[in-house]
Design a protein that fits this description.
Layout (H helix, E strand, L loop, with lengths): L2 H10 L15 H36 L1
Length: about 60
């Protein structure tokens, strides 16, 4: 596609003004579900790191 064809295509498309654009609002339920999912993932990551740190500490103590 040439630049001219692209420019012609873009000229045919309607522009959307920011004032007219409305972001779909998520429900409280969806927001809470997403927050809980993020919190669960963060907790899982924290626990994995704690286990790994503990394992490395135990492994390091055996070598001494």
């Amino acid at each position: 596609m040439s630049r001219e064809q692209y420019a012609d295509e873009q000229a045919l498309l309607d522009a959307v003004n920011d004032e007219q654009f409305e972001r779909p609002r998520s429900s409280k339920t969806d927001t809470l579900k997403a927050r809980r999912q993020v919190e669960a993932l963060l907790e899982e990551r924290r626990l994995k790191r704690a286990i790994d740190d503990d394992w490395y500490c135990d492994f390091g103590d055996e070598e001494e």
